[in-house]
Design brief:
The structure is a homodimer.
Chain A (H helix, E strand, L loop, with lengths): L1 H11 L6 H8 L3 H8 L9 H14 L5 H8 L4 E5 L6 H14 L4 E5 L9 H8 L5 E5 L3 H7 L5 E4 L10 E5 H14 L5 E6 L4 H16 L9 E4 L3 H17 L4 E4 L2 H13 L9 E6 L12 E4 L2 H16 L8 E5 L1 E3 L10
Parallel strand pairs in A: 1-2, 1-3, 3-4, 4-5, 5-11, 6-7, 6-8, 8-9, 9-10
Antiparallel strand pairs in A: 10-12
Helix pairs in contact in A: 2-3, 2-4, 3-4, 6-13, 9-10, 11-12
The structure holds a DNA duplex.
Chain lengths: 349, 349
Amino acid sequence: MESGEQVHELRGRTPRVTAAMVAARAGVSTATVSLVANGKTQGRVSEDNISRVREAIAELGYVVDSIGSSLAKGISSIVILVAPDISNPFFANVIAGVRGALGAEYQLLLSVTDAGEFPRVDDVRRLLALRPAGLLVDAPSAEFLEDLSVAGPLVLLDAPGLESFAPSVNLDVGHGARLLARHLADAGHKQAAYVDSVTGTATFDIRRAAFLEESAALGITVATDHVIGTTIDVGAAAGAFAAAWPGWQRDGVTAVVCATDTHAYGVLQEARVAGVRIPQELAVAGFDDLPYSATSNPGLTSVHLPGDALGAKAGEQLRRVMEGKGLEQPQLILQGSLMVRGSTEAAST
Amino acid sequence: MESGEQVHELRGRTPRVTAAMVAARAGVSTATVSLVANGKTQGRVSEDNISRVREAIAELGYVVDSIGSSLAKGISSIVILVAPDISNPFFANVIAGVRGALGAEYQLLLSVTDAGEFPRVDDVRRLLALRPAGLLVDAPSAEFLEDLSVAGPLVLLDAPGLESFAPSVNLDVGHGARLLARHLADAGHKQAAYVDSVTGTATFDIRRAAFLEESAALGITVATDHVIGTTIDVGAAAGAFAAAWPGWQRDGVTAVVCATDTHAYGVLQEARVAGVRIPQELAVAGFDDLPYSATSNPGLTSVHLPGDALGAKAGEQLRRVMEGKGLEQPQLILQGSLMVRGSTEAAST
DNA sequence: CTGAAAGCGCTTACAG
DNA sequence: CTGAAAGCGCTTACAG
């Protein structure tokens, strides 16, 4: 096809196809082209012109220029997701959920920072110059939100205690922690230890506090010096456990709960090296239910947190706000569930 | 609809600071403001006006509007990274590398697709409407690149065999595969098996072909029916290995190489279940050197691929192209290295 | 060194 | 239903 060739040439070079070119070809004004391209023809454009313009658009391969459109509308179609740790496997699910909920109209822009670092407000302000249609902020600090003072649509994810700043979607990690305590109590454990994360995000405080509280209520003792903390790193957790285990063993600890599965992998690894039998001698559990937890040996008992749903709900809420619809429920909480595996429960015969 | 009102309120509260406002305050024209804001004052603006404008910018908190700027310049400051699988832990390093190399002037926009799916050309065309300053494409197909026919700066990552389309940064996975074959030959293995990835990306063909060729040259036999393939999934690999192992064992296979560490995790797991001693009875190795490979038990021997460097180099090259500088070396190849761990080598006494 | 002006591509009241 | 025109915020020749 000759016209196809032409289009290819045009694209390959640079001659951007503009609304003016479409208008010329269809014999209408650019206003009409805009109306058709945006599907706002309802009672404003004749059927005849609609098909004329559609044809021209197809022939020329016209795509509305985001820049021009954004400037005219005062807003872009970009949604920015600000997060401290996109390299976390858990976060991949969150992103997938957001992407699905936003649909094709919005472009998702990930604000990428160095692992574990939260973006500085300055960085985000630069992103705001893109005039995003909306903002999604994952696991922020109160300070960050105060400094930010965003004007447009904003939804928070995994930001417990910060509900006053904006609509949020949170994970009820406390519930998961309590399920875990109950599971261990049912198995007869009396002395447990806890390996915390030292990053200081609110979710970790809640995980620990809820577990300690429920444990106490169920008759499991977690002595103060049986609570240790490391960064979210297999090696670091392994080292800390190696140092702590002799004391714990002497004190009769038979179960250890870790703030993340990554910590738990370190414990499992070191336990094997030290010849500690899992779960007979020591039960091990974590949070997050990372992909490898289901298939490790033994499988790791873990509090499953629905990352996919977290992202999807946040995306849906944001979308509603961006479309000017109200939110019936500005605050959403998603439940975790307990995945019981071999690390806390010997295989039944 | 409390939150709806909240948003509305916020929207009205923040007036956008424009160059015109800065100009008025500083007593200059917007042209001068633009020059100062973009650091193009060299011999064009008096010291006096420079400081005047700087002051006004600081006082008003002016940030150049990306949209207006992009439209005027015909190009935005966005760099789009198109990739099939951002949820791959390996890819997190690539992203970090890119981010570091691009610096603060460019915003990195990840084109997120469903896991394993490559974006359709249509999706990318919509992204092109953002007038990106440059494009980074990871592991594309030739077909995709043909359809794309991008005009602007473009650098490919991990796209072996597609060097004719654009400057690229590739990983020499063949080299890693040969190192692996040599390592196994040195350990005296005579019969090996291969667990391939069935996704059909070029890198996997190269991994397999190079390993098979070097193995043959070094006296290791890999029978045709000792090559199997699964998706990149621990469970799938475990199942396939379980089915294949009895035959392999009968045929005297003492080593199995997997196209990815993820496949290898499945093999390790199933081997434990089946009571196969690693590495005494069966040596296991993979590619990618994922984070858990260093700390699993036994540690997994793996071909380390420098994801960080891959991203960094690609970012650097793209940057050079975007800045109009030529590339001395349009084609870059990064070496992998072999990480030998317990899965192929019994701990020395 | 400086500012008035054109223009980037689009959308949207507005007048017909 | 339709098009001319203003305007979004900025950058860049251009003329002084």
